[in-house]
C-alpha cells in the first residue's frame, strides 16, 4: 500500500487513494498566499467576514487552495477559515442517499425478456475522494448500478431471479461497493423492487400453477379415499367378529335419523336383532 501511495504522490495525474498527501506550492503560489494573508490582516475586521464559513453537522467541506487540496483533509462540522479569491470550498453531503434504478429490459439466461428495477442506498465516507476522483458521483453511481443490474441478472434463469432476489441483491451490493471504493462511496444496501414478466408468460405460469394445485388436490383426495377404505375395512372386521356390534350400529343409525328429522319414522325390527341381547337357554 505504501508503494501505491508514494507512486500517487509522484504522479499528479493519478487518483488520490486516501487523504494522506502534501501541499506542494510553487514559489509564485507561495507569494500569492503570503500577500493574501497580509491583505486580510491589514483590512481586518472587514475581510474577516469573507474568510469565515460554516458547515453543517451532516456535511464536510473540501478546500482547494490555488487548485491544490489543502492538507488535513476535509473540514467540518463547524466554522472554517478560507482566503478570499484563493480558496474554493466544495461541500459534500455525508448522509445516506437513495435512488431508484430505472426499469431495465433484461434477457435472462433462458431467453426470457423481463423488466427489472431496484433501489440503491449509499453514502460518502471520504469527502476528498468523492470530489477529487469522480465527476458527478451521483450520476456515476446510478449508471454503474444499472450496468451491474443487467450483468447480474443476465447470467441467471428466470426461476433463479424470482427465488433468489436477496442473494442477487447482496452480490450486487458487494460488486458496487468494490467499484465505488476509490470514489469515496460506500454502498450500504441494494434491493430488487419488481420483476415484470410478459403477459403471455403470466398466463402460462398461472396455468401451470393451477394444474399443479389440481394435481395436488387429486392426490390428497385419493389419499383420503384410501384412508377411508382402510378404516371401513377395519370396522367391517370388528363388526364381523361380534354380531351384536352390527345390531348396536343399526340402533345408533335410527337414533341419528330421529334426531335430525322432526317426524316419525317406522322401521321393521327383525326378531333376530334381539338374539344378541339374550343369553342362550340350556
UniProtKB/TrEMBL annotation:
Name of the gene: LOC117665105
Domain Band residue range list: 50-209
Organism: Pantherophis guttatus
InterPro entries (alphabetical): Band-7_stomatin-like (IPR043202), Band_7 (IPR001107), Band_7/SPFH_dom_sf (IPR036013), Band_7/stomatin-like_CS (IPR018080), Stomatin_HflK_fam (IPR001972)
Cellular compartments per GO CC: plasma membrane
Keyword presence, Ion transport: no
Keyword terms: Membrane, Transmembrane, Transmembrane helix
PANTHER family, alphabetized: BAND 7 PROTEIN-RELATED, STOMATIN
Family matches, as SMART domains: PHB
Residues forming coiled coils: none
Source domain of life: Eukaryota
Signal peptide: none
Protein's cellular compartments: Membrane
UniProt keyword Membrane present: yes
Protein family (similarity comment): Belongs to the band 7/mec-2 family.
TM stretches of this protein: 30-52
Protein's UniProt name: Stomatin-like
